[in-house]
Design brief:
Radius of gyration: 23 Å
Distance between the termini: 94 Å
Largest sheet: none
Shape: flat
Strand content: under 5%
Structural class: mainly alpha
Helix content: over 70%
Order of helices and strands: HHHHHHHHHHHHHHHH
Number of strands: 0
Length: 316
């Protein structure tokens, strides 16, 4: 075989391979949005916005309101983007996350890091310049906590990862309160505690649904290391604690009848759903409908914080 023929034979397989299609501008933009985990941010804003109304005792001033929401959105997006960079090895294993942009290759690690750092810097400036520097400092603390404490330290090491790591998701209420008042008062800390107590009861049912994913990725979620009955017990305890915390806001925050009614009724419903989950678990039912509690927890928190925001606008 001639030298030219040998070269052609060497190149032939390469020529037959399909060429990877470059992502379009629209695909890239969608990938950057996906890095921020917009559905998670949506829930964070649900807690931050009503908190600002409570802090202001009514409608907050427009500039700090907008700055806090925009800055908070960018800050949370930054933390989530850093999380995807660090957890890309896990995301490749888990069925639930295998379409994330760093797994599919739509974005490179360098692009994702640059995006995350840009959001972090811009969010800090937006909050500091247009709201106040306390809100900006809390934003930086939230990013650092989510990245270093939860993602890098706790997530792969302990079944309590979501309990203490969930503190990062509590910061939006502090940022919202500080963005309006420049201070942190007791009602803000009670709302912080509410989100802290609600998070395990919200997330552990999701981990039950995707137990095999977390097991394959070697992430020690409670559902993996303890089983369904223990998760059911823990969800009940945290649901009851969440209800108690919402009631504490009534005397401390001076909440009215609307908030009190929503806290009792919605909290009672959430507790009932938690007990129902445990009942299905101890009966050994194949379908324990864990996602029913997950979705109920979202609705519960939304209703409570909606009441937090509306209550200051009412005369009773």
């Amino acid at each position: 075989m001639s030298h030219a023929t040998q070269s052609d034979a060497h190149l032939a397989p390469t020529a037959q391979r399909p060429t990877a299609q470059r992502p379009t501008l629209r695909t890239k933009a969608a990938a950057y949005v996906a890095l921020t985990k917009p559905r998670v941010i949506e829930l964070l804003l649900v807690t931050a916005l009503p908190t600002m109304f409570l802090a202001a005792g009514g409608v907050p001033p427009l500039l700090p309101l907008v700055a806090t929401l925009v800055g908070g959105f960018l800050s949370a997006g930054s933390a989530n983007a850093f999380n995807m960079v660090i957890d890309r090895d896990i995301d490749r294993v888990m069925h639930r996350t295998k379409q994330r942009p760093l797994v599919t290759g739509t974005l490179s690690v360098l692009e994702a890091k640059a995006f995350a750092w840009t959001l972090a810097v811009v969010s800090t400036l937006v909050l500091g310049v247009f709201a106040n520097w306390l809100a900006a400092a809390l934003s930086i603390a939230a990013i650092c906590f989510y990245v270093f404490i939860y993602t890098m330290l706790l997530k792969r090491r302990t079944e309590q990862n979501i309990v203490w790591g969930g503190i990062a998701g509590c910061f939006p209420v502090l940022i919202g309160w500080a963005g309006v008042t420049g201070t942190l008062d007791w009602p803000a800390w009670i709302l912080f505690t509410l989100v802290f107590l609600w998070t395990p009861a919200h997330y552990w049912p999701l981990s039950m649904k995707y137990r095999s994913d977390y097991e394959a990725a070697d992430v020690p979620m409670l559902a993996v290391v303890r089983g369904r009955q223990m998760v059911g017990v823990q969800v009940i305890l945290y649901a009851w604690a969440s209800l108690a915390c919402t009631l504490l806001l009534i005397p401390v925050g001076g909440m009215g009848l609307l908030y009190a009614a929503v806290a009792v009724v919605a909290g009672g419903w959430f507790v009932w759903e938690s007990h129902a989950l445990y009942g299905r678990a101890i009966r050994g039912e194949r379908e324990i409908r864990a996602m029913r509690v997950f979705h109920a927890s979202n609705t519960y928190l939304t209703l409570v914080f909606l009441a937090v925001g509306v209550d200051p606008l009412l005369p009773f």
